[in-house]
Specification:
Elements: H1 2-23, H2 25-35, H3 39-52, H4 61-73, E1 85-90, E2 93-98, H5 100-109, E3 113-122, E4 126-130, E5 135-139, E6 147-156, E7 161-167, H6 168-178, H7 188-191, H8 193-209, H9 214-222, H10 227-235, H11 246-256
Antiparallel strand pairs: 1-2, 3-6, 4-5, 6-7
């Protein structure tokens, strides 16, 4: 009981701090410089996000605002219902994440995409995916509203096109293995699974094959999603490597070069050879 009352007190103090931050002239000026006349609307949405999410309101208000400013810098709304981006609490640490609509929006801004799309594949529909060309075809008619897979596709103005398809099982396995957000009960993986699945496939597609502006690449770098963790886990050496002492390495190098131990001759005669 005492713990619950203490948490309520923490949340109340945090919300009061957030209101103070939002009303501060320095924050208002900074937001105006980024968003112009939309600054007030954005700050109001930050407060709605913070007060409407119990887990997020347990996080320090200053840190949450710092993550929201990443969205402001990209001119993306933070309202969860819109799906452009999210601020997700990992314990008491808030983290900015792009949604799939955010990826689409930033891709469009590059001016290099003729078509870009991501959507669900429903029960009753059949996907034929050509792994050689990277193209796919969806046939049949949906028999329910249950998504069994997800695809992403783009075509550039220069004619290059690419598509990717992941089954629901593949997306879920990927999220369980690589995404820290999966362990959070209130994360979008549990409240907006389809949206997060679409974000996963479109992020995979654009990161590997798409064109990204400096703004876009910066947004991907700030996105605490699964890609980096997945790439490291898939490509890193899984076995520990024990290095010998430095003196052993130096002795080995001398022996390989035909140099006697404890002595090194330096000859400045002749031309260097490459």
């Amino acid at each position: 009981m005492a713990m619950a009352q203490n948490q309520i007190s923490v949340v109340k103090n945090n919300i009061a701090n957030m209101k103070g931050i939002i009303n501060s002239e320095s924050v208002k000026d900074r937001m105006k410089s980024m968003l112009g006349n939309e600054a007030g609307v954005f700050l109001a949405s930050v407060l709605d996000l913070y007060t409407g999410d119990t887990n997020l309101s347990k996080c320090d208000a200053t840190k949450v605002m710092a993550e929201c400013m990443k969205a402001a810098a990209l001119k993306l709304p933070v309202a969860k219902s819109l799906g452009f981006c999210y601020v997700i609490p990992y314990g008491n640490t808030p983290n900015f994440q792009l949604g799939y609509k955010g990826y689409v929006q930033l891709a469009q801004r590059t001016g290099q995409y003729k078509y870009i799309n991501a959507d669900c594949v429903y029960e009753g529909e059949k996907v034929t995916y050509d792994r050689i060309t990277g193209m796919m075809e969806i046939t049949g008619e949906a028999t329910s509203e249950k998504a069994v897979g997800y695809f992403a596709y783009f075509k550039l103005l220069n004619g290059f096109e690419k598509a990717v398809y992941w089954s629901r099982e593949k997306v879920e396995a990927h999220a369980k293995k690589y995404s820290k957000a999966w362990s959070q009960p209130a994360s979008p993986w549990h409240t907006e699974f389809d949206a997060m699945a679409l974000k996963t496939v479109i992020k995979s597609l654009i990161s590997k094959y798409g064109i990204m502006s400096v703004e876009f690449a910066s947004a991907v770098a700030q996105d605490y999603g699964d890609t980096v963790e997945a790439e490291v886990a898939q490509n890193a050496n899984g076995e520990a490597i024990t290095l010998p002492p430095q003196e052993v390495i130096e002795a080995d190098e001398k022996q390989q070069n035909g140099e006697p131990e404890g002595q090194m001759e330096i000859n400045f005669e002749g031309e260097p050879s490459f």
